[in-house]
Write a structure and sequence with these properties.
It is a single chain. With 643 residues, the chain is an alpha/beta fold. The protein contains 19 helices and 20 strands.
Length: 643
């Protein structure tokens, strides 16, 4: 099972009510189709062998015997299909009839899980026919089992050769109650929950059903496979749509069209689920041997060969940026508000009415200015209290300097120009640095002089310096230590570069000020640059992405390494797929190597970051989400990438 991915399916067969033989044939067909697709787990709807809508026919021995025979037929005729399959049927034990999920693995019926929660009233009045299972586990006589007995009750299914794969089952109504069984199953180790369901369709129910599946998969940090009854069920009173869903930790990764039959396939990342649980010290894992609910005696084992899948699952190339335009606008509005609230709270707490920003005319400082303006407006402060300082030097171009002036004018903030060329030149004389030597000292000397100017102006005016650096720069260490790395409040500290661009674009499209919109558009069109090297024929000569690589790649690496805990070789695999047609594998690997090396070597800069608001799930604050020693060795990560 390469990189933790396992292919699963929810299946809706086109059945005939009470025709067990016909239904078995349709189930067998879909199991075989699933096997051809390298599916390892397939889930069928509730009572699919008979049909959910049999009514009082469930009390007929003929139907019950027919269901048993059909189950045996399904098991025998799919013995060569390497997977775990769950099918629904009515099953009698000790004179009681239960609504069950039967587990089939390589020709063997390895267990039955009965439905716990039977609605007291429903359109088909299930409680008239079925007994709700209370708790516990027993074994029942089974001529088809190798041991002569099969587990029945609260059974977990664990894969012998894939340690992270443990499967739990609940049936339809079990999900809709306040405390679904899946919560307890996950607590005892289930990483995938299967739900065999027959949920009738009414207006609005589909959206609610989807929310249930998403939220339960998030709450349990698990994969969730929901198989729904569909075509062939009786339409005497109800309609069934076959609304199949596959979720992973709160995200739908597979969904069928309603009123269709067949397979809905998804690829669940077990590695990611385990990593997520590992870092959640609130996830209440209790090993099976310690609790009464699940013991070694009622834990059934199955075997499937790990499959080296050619992934069909797609990972968004910009994980920080919503693909849907409406979602993106909503996200931008929310983030700008959060940034502004963070700054406004700090200003109000210290009784400060002045904010100092180094305004270069680039993306990051523009976003910081936007946030400061929103914060001042929230507090009812005069925007003139925002002092935008432009500090031209050796690398400044006319374009960025002009944009800084236009921005300050459009927002009606105070603009101050401090030409630092003479100060930096004198500093170079003092330390014996030649201005002809365009090295790191040449660059950082300018950056640190700018920070000194900003800090001193803030002291003069009784204000604070607002930091402009973003999350992507912090990940790469693309900041001058104690230069642009330092401020008194860093509003962009948890905003990645790919998102910075969209936040500025959002402001541009939502302002009624035409001049502001035009200058913001030009800022967006300006190449990303620190402007620390002399321009070439008046144009920017130092383009950041030519030096450290494309930010869209680095943000992709950052998300999947920090947020998901993926190893480098897995990141390379999914990045190659996500950026196919734009970057080849060698290019992705080159910049991933750069990212990993810089991420480790530059931690010392992140260990002493200023305060700043967290706005997303990935942040590198040393006080909160990311604590890493500055001397950590990168060797294992680079070796993993080379495997």
């Amino acid at each position: 099972m390469k990189d933790g991915f396992i292919r699963v399916a929810a299946a809706t067969p086109d059945i005939k009510v009470a025709d067990c033989d016909h239904n078995a044939d349709r189930i067998i067909e879909l199991i075989r189709q699933a096997a051809e697709e390298d599916v390892s787990i397939v889930v069928f709807p509730e009572l699919c062998i008979t049909g959910y809508t049999c009514g009082d026919l469930f009390l007929q021995k003929v139907l019950l015997d027919g269901a048993k025979k059909a189950l045996v037929k399904i098991a025998k005729e799919t013995a060569d299909c390497d997977m775990l399959a769950f099918v629904g049927l009515p099953f009698e034990v000790d004179g009681k009839l239960y609504n069950c999920a039967a587990a089939i693995n390589n020709g063997n019926i390895i267990g039955f899980v009965p439905k716990k929660n039977i609605p007291a009233y429903s359109e088909f009045y299930e409680v008239r026919h079925f007994t709700p299972w209370q708790s516990g586990c027993c074994t029942i006589a089974d001529d088809e089992s190798d041991s002569g007995f099969t587990a029945f009750g609260d059974v977990l299914f664990s894969c012998e050769n894939i340690p992270d794969l443990t499967v739990g089952v609940e049936i339809c109504e079990d999900l809709w109650i306040p405390e679904p069984p899946s919560g307890l199953l996950a607590k005892h180790g289930a990483t995938i929950i299967c739900n065999l369901s027959a949920s009738d369709e009414i207006i609005g129910k589909g959206e609610y059903r989807e929310q249930l599946v998403k939220s339960q998969s998030a709450r349990c940090v698990c994969g969730y496979i929901y198989a729904d009854a569909g075509m062939g069920e009786s339409t005497q009173d109800l309609i069934f749509s076959g609304h199949n869903l596959i979720a992973e930790n709160g995200t739908i990764i597979g969904e069928s069209q309603k009123f269709t039959t067949g397979l809905t396939i998804g690829e669940i990342d077990l590695q990611r689920l385990i990593a997520e649980r590992r870092k959640m010290n609130t996830f209440p894992f209790e090993p099976a041997k310690r609790v009464q609910y699940v013991t070694d005696e009622n834990k059934e084992y199955f075997f499937i060969d790990p499959k080296d899948l050619e992934l069909k699952r797609r990972f968004p190339p910009m994980p920080f940026v919503p693909a849907d335009k409406d979602d993106l606008n909503e996200r931008c509005e929310e983030i700008l508000t959060m940034q502004a609230v963070g700054l406004a709270t700090r200003l109000r707490h210290i009784g400060c009415k002045t904010a100092v920003i180094g305004l270069s005319g680039g993306l990051d400082s523009t976003l910081a200015l936007i946030v400061a303006v929103h914060a001042f407006d929230m507090l009812g402060l005069d925007r003139k209290g925002i002092i935008a300082v432009t500090m031209p030097c050796f690398g400044t171009t006319k374009r960025t300097k002009s944009n800084a002036y236009y921005l300050a004018e459009a927002y009606n903030v105070t603009l101050k120009e401090v030409d630092i060329t003479a100060a930096v030149s004198q500093h170079f004389v003092d330390i014996g640095q030649s201005k002809e030597k365009l090295d790191v000292t040449f660059e950082n000397g300018q950056a640190r002089e700018r920070t000194q100017v900003l800090m001193d102006i803030a002291n003069q005016q009784g204000g604070i310096v607002i930091g402009t650096g973003d999350l992507s720069e912090l990940a790469l260490g693309w900041a001058t230590y104690n230069g642009d790395h330092m401020s008194m409040y860093g509003v962009n500290a948890s905003v990645p570069k790919t998102l910075v661009r969209h936040l500025v674009a959002y402001e541009s499209s939502h302002t009624e000020n035409k001049q502001l919109s035009e200058v913001l558009a030009d800022v967006l069109a300006t190449p990303v640059s620190p402007e620390l090297l002399p321009p070439t024929e008046g144009e920017i000569s130092q383009k950041t992405e030519d030096i450290v690589g494309p930010y869209e790649l680095h943000d992709f690496f950052l998300y999947y390494m920090v947020r998901c805990g993926f190893p480098p070789k897995k990141i390379l695999r999914i990045a190659e797929q996500s950026f196919a047609g734009r970057f080849d594998k060698d290019t992705v690997k080159k910049w991933l190597t750069v990212f990993i090396k810089r991420f480790f070597s530059q931690q010392f800069k992140r260990s002493c970051l200023p305060d700043g608001p967290k706005v997303g799930s990935v942040t590198l604050s040393p006080r909160g989400d990311w604590r890493m020693p500055s001397d950590a060795c990168v060797k294992l990560w680079l070796e993993d990438l080379e495997e």
